[in-house]
Amino acid sequence: MQSTHKCDLLSTKVKVSIVSTAILCAAFTLSGCASGTNAIDDAITTSAISIADSTPTISTAPFNEPDVQTDASTSDKLLDEDTIRLAVTAADLSKIPGDGLYWANEATGSSGSITNLAQRVEAGQTCRSFNATRTSYDGVTLYQGDVCLDKRSGWWTRSLEPVT
Fold it and tell me: In three state form, how does the secondary structure of the chain look?
C-alpha cells in the first residue's frame, strides 16, 4: 500500500512541477510586453516628408556650372533644341517632302518646321545643316543649325543659333 501512495505523491510532484514551469515560462514571455519599451516602436517616427528641391531645373552647362539654375523659358528652349536635333538626325533625306519636316514637343507645347536640310562630309564627319522654326508661348524663332556625327559618341550639335 505504501508503494501506491509513493506513486501518487510522485505523480502529484511531477504535475506541480510541470504547472510551475508553464507558469514561469508564461510570466517570462509576457514580461517583455509589459516592460513598455520596444526598439522597433522607438525607431518609428511620423514626421512629414520633406522635398529636397521643389523647383528642379535643367542646367545649361551641367559639367561646367552645376549650381546654375535656369528659368522655365530656358529649360523649354533646351528641350526644344534637343527635339529639333533628334528630328534632323533621324530624318531620311531621300524622303523629306518639299515643305520640310515638322516637329513637336509635347512636354513644352512647342512645334515648328525644319527646312533646307543638307548633308555633307567635313573633316571626316557626316554633318547636316538646316533651318528650323520654333513656335512657342514666347513667340516664333527662326534658327540656323548644324549637327555632326562623331563615330565614337554619336550626333552632336555643332551650332543652333537664332537668326537675328
Answer: CHHHHHHHHHHHHHHHHHHHHHHHHHHHHHHHHHCCCCHHHHHCCCCCCCCCCCCCCCCCCCCCCCCCCCCHHHHHHHHHHHHHHHHHHHCCHHHCCCCCEEEEECCCCEEEEEEEEEEEEECCEEEEEEEEEEEECCEEEEEEEEEEEECCCEEEEEEEEECC
| Predicted model pTM | 0.55
Q: What angle do CA 91, 96, 97 make, to 5 degrees?
A: 150
Provide the residue ranges of all domains of the chain, joining segments of one domain with +: 72-162
How confident is the model over 141-151, as pLDDT tens digits?
Answer: 999 999 999 88
